[in-house]
């Protein structure tokens, strides 16, 4: 309501009451004005009434919501279901135009404004998280893998002779397939074992650059966030190599925004060498539905070039989701989540260490990985290799999600490339292990319940192993009801073995 409407209302209701309502309205509008003027995430989160008012004000600026609109084109924001319209807050036109995902749509001013504000807020949060010199970014309605592909396709026009992408190995399918999909040949650089950690082989990277020739290399494709015992790549050193040889550098920062260490590596890499773009997932870093990513960088023109490579308009859903989330949290709320994640990492590490020692196992020493942990499964694998995968299936059937059990000697073919020791990021890691990660949003009760269920599963597997190794056997009359229940669970676990063997 504007001033004229409030003045008209004073004819019907006491002017004092109307003025009070007007002041309340102005408090909402003040927050909106600050957002539009500064383009930064508010320190304190908005309440739902302010958020919904803001979204409604933007939505009525789109032509599909004009009262007198007469659409005679093929795309006029028509929606058959009112439920679908409400789900999207009546933002129907999406974002961008056919030539640029960041372009303004003439008949969708509200959606265009939403897109610009979201990109501005996300840029502010990336700086807040530790990459202070980032200059440009945009939200793209694709997950991390396809967003990496978009970066590689953009570089193709700059480097027409390039055929190869140098890629320090990480056993995750989507980042590998992103290079194949873009039409390039991945050059896999095996990691080197330093203590328990798997780290970047810098000598092998530079040797391969010299062997292939810089002009024939599209880029170096490095990684920050990853499963232990692999740790983030040596970004500073890789950035220096890229700068020295004039090779672009694309960083897969999938869930690294939540880690100050990962963000610091990117900041330092850009300071001492070359990083052209870094890509991060929306769902893993901001707790929104899957389907979006952020492409960011230190050169405005290159990031704009990537956005222009996207063909056609795009869904506004990921932008809307992250905008609502950041405005709800505010920068203070997001910083609180980052702080809590660090605390949960320490708590998970301590609890997992205690449990591992109780079973004559140990927590692998991976100090350079700030998110993921790994616990050895040597005693299980020593007795029976099947017991390792059995443990994974038991955790899955007991509703433990996210934990990864990595056996020795697993083989996997991805897009025609065969990887030995798949999921362990190397051909021959010394032992089987179990992964668990402390990601944003994790609570103490999640850790406690995971440790409790893992403890129970380990006891059951040990009990089953002892039964199989006991030649004398046990009289059926001596079996307890608890054993019968565990045997039934084991049968169910066998059905789920295949489901849990490939979690990447």
UniProtKB/TrEMBL annotation:
Q: What is this protein called?
A: O-phosphoseryl-tRNA(Sec) selenium transferase
GO terms under cellular component: cytoplasm
What does the entry list as the binding residues for substrate? 97-98, 105, 313
What's the source species for this entry? Muntiacus muntjak (Barking deer)
Site feature: May act as a substrate filter by repelling compounds with a negatively charged alpha-carboxylate: 74
Which family is this protein grouped under? Belongs to the SepSecS family.
Q: Name one GO biological process term.
A: conversion of seryl-tRNAsec to selenocys-tRNAsec
Alphabetically ordered keywords of this record: Cytoplasm, Protein biosynthesis, Pyridoxal phosphate, RNA-binding, Selenium, Transferase, tRNA-binding
The coenzyme or cofactor needed here is: pyridoxal 5'-phosphate
């Amino acid at each position: 309501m504007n001033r004229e409407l409030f003045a008209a209302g004073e004819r019907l209701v006491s002017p004092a009451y109307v003025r009070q309502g007007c002041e309340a309205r102005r408090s909402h509008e003040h927050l909106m004005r600050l957002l539009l003027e500064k383009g930064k995430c508010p320190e304190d989160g908005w309440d739902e009434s302010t958020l919904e008012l803001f979204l409604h004000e933007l939505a009525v600026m789109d032509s599909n919501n004009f009262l007198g609109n007469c659409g005679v084109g093929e795309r006029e924001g028509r929606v058959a279901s009112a439920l679908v319209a409400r789900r999207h807050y009546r933002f129907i036109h999406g974002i961008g135009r056919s030539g640029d995902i960041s372009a303004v749509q003439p008949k969708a001013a509200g959606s265009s404004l939403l897109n610009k504000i979201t990109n501005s807020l996300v840029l502010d949060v990336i700086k807040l998280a530790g990459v202070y010199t980032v200059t440009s970014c945009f939200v793209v309605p694709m997950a991390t893998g396809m967003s990496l592909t978009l970066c590689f396709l953009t570089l193709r026009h700059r480097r027409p002779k390039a055929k190869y992408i140098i890629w320090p190995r990480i056993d995750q399918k989507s980042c590998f397939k992103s290079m194949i999909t873009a039409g390039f040949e991945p050059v896999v650089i095996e990691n080197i074992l330093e203590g328990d950690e798997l780290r970047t082989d810098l000598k092998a990277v530079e040797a391969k650059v010299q062997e292939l020739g810089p002009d024939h290399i599209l880029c170096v494709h490095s990684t920050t966030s990853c499963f232990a015992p692999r740790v983030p790549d040596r970004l500073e050193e890789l950035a220096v190599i890229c700068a020295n040889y004039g090779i672009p550098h694309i960083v897969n920062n999938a869930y690294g925004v939540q880690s100050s260490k990962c963000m610091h590596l990117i900041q330092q890499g850009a300071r001492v060498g070359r990083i052209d773009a870094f890509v991060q997932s929306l769902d893993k870093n901001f707790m929104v539905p899957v389907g979006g990513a952020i492409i960011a960088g230190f050169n405005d023109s290159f990031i704009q070039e990537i956005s222009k490579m996207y063909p056609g308009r795009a869904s506004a859903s990921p932008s809307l989701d992250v905008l609502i989330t950041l405005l709800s949290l505010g920068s203070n709320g997001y910083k609180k989540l980052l702080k809590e994640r660090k605390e949960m990492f320490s708590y998970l590490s301590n609890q997992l260490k205690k449990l591992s020692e109780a079973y004559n196992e140990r927590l692998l020493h991976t100090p350079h990985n700030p998110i993921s942990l790994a616990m050895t499964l040597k005693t299980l694998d020593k007795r029976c290799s099947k017991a390792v995968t059995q443990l994974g299936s038991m955790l899955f059937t007991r509703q433990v999600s996210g934990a990864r059990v990595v056996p020795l000697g697993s083989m996997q073919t991805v897009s025609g490339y065969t990887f030995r020791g798949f999921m362990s990021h190397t051909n021959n890691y010394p032992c089987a292990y179990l992964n668990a990660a402390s990601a944003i949003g994790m609570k103490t009760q999640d850790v406690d319940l995971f440790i409790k269920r893992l403890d129970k599963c380990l006891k059951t597997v040990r009990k089953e192993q002892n039964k199989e190794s006991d030649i004398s056997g046990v009289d059926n009359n001596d079996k307890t009801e608890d054993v019968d229940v565990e045997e039934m669970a084991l049968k169910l676990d066998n059905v789920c073995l295949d489901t849990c063997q490939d979690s990447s």
